[in-house]
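fyi for ur records
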Amino acid sequence: MIPGWGLGRRHFADLSEQEVLALAISSEEDDARIYRTYAERMRADFPDTAKIFEGMAAEEDEHRSRLIALHKKRFGDTIPLIRREHVAGYYARRPVWLVENLGLERIREEASGMETEARNFYLKAAKETTDADTRKLLGDLAAAEAGHQKAAERLERKHLSEGVREDEARAAHRQFVLTWVQPGLAGLMDGSVSTLAPIFATAFATHDTWTTFLVGLAASVGAGISMGFTEAASDDGAISGRGSPIKRGFASGIMTTIGGLGHALPYLIPDFWTATTIAFAIVFIELWAIAWIQNKYMETPFFRAAFQVVLGGALVFAAGILIGSA
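which gave:
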């Protein structure tokens, strides 16, 4: 056991040269595993990007081997067990499960940031040490990390032609639309349109803003829960390729609730006609927002989308007012 280890994390300045080298070795091992996880995550949809991460993992393995050889030469075969989480102030990696579900470009940016972060840390540590041998060691590690960045750029040039980048970008956009936009849009339409009738029927039947708000809140939350579970349970994404059912369920459920709450919240205002006028305006904005989203992400002609949404919304809206006024 390393002295003082059980009392908490060590400070980087307190590490010996052997411990710094051991920390570098374990960091290289972890980063190689992360890159291989990214490669596996990308292999099915983005095989060329997967090759880049495989190449980056191989680069990490090569540097780890060089570091181990240096450790054997200077300190022997026994490498102390030191990891990032053992050292206070040492750069940390986010859990891979928080990153692997991000978009293609975001994962590429994360990988680039990993290399930059490691290099900057070694450079900073080298400036703060007064020991010549330690300074050289840290400088060598910084140079190794810079080499990783150049290697990644070289691998990108090798595997990602302009055509491949465009194909992967289209595939990533399509996946984003299928997983987030489509269920979210369906939820927003359902929440905005289906709650119009009960909310405005209650409003014109009672002229009581608080009762109307409670009905709108109940309708919005209930519809959100229902739509979320329905979306998640209807398709696991394995065959359709629409992505995680949990993501789609959240997108649909949250947007359904938002769509209903938009014209329910104004009824927190005590004055009936003021609340109703604001609710009318919000309904108008909601319906045009839906048409805009359909046009931008679903490539539906704007005027056709507007006609469909506004017509449907107007019919439900009119039905609610007529029923409430009867």
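The chain has a mean pLDDT of 78. thats all i got for now
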